[in-house]
Amino acid sequence: GVHTLPNGNKYVGEFRADRKHGKGFLTWADGSKYEGDFADDKPEGFGVKVFADGDVYEGTWVSGHFDGKGSYKHTNGETYEGSYSQDMKHGHGHYTWPSGEEYSGEFANGRRNGFGTHVFEDGQMYE
């Protein structure tokens, strides 16, 4: 089915009991797009969201939030691959900057925290 909201958001996909459920495609009024699984009206399971600014998240969702394994690619070339909890980097992950600098290690609540290795663009390593 198709459902267009007064705010300009549009959903095309499967429904259950008048709620987004199953496979679907959601477009927000700002131009952001999500394609993937839904449950109880929210992204749930695997999906890809392309934000209005061009950033892309691909991975698992729980109740409309990044949760579990995923990757986030920024338009500026920065990338993160790893674990998420409630939309924040949380657990083990790998962050890469366009310069070649990278960090691999633990994250908590969106920030580097705990054990990790940071390799700078000149090759120097900090553990």
UniProtKB/TrEMBL annotation:
InterPro entries: MORN. The keyword Repeat applies. The keyword Repeat applies. Keywords: Repeat. It comes from the Eukaryota. This is MORN repeat-containing protein 5.
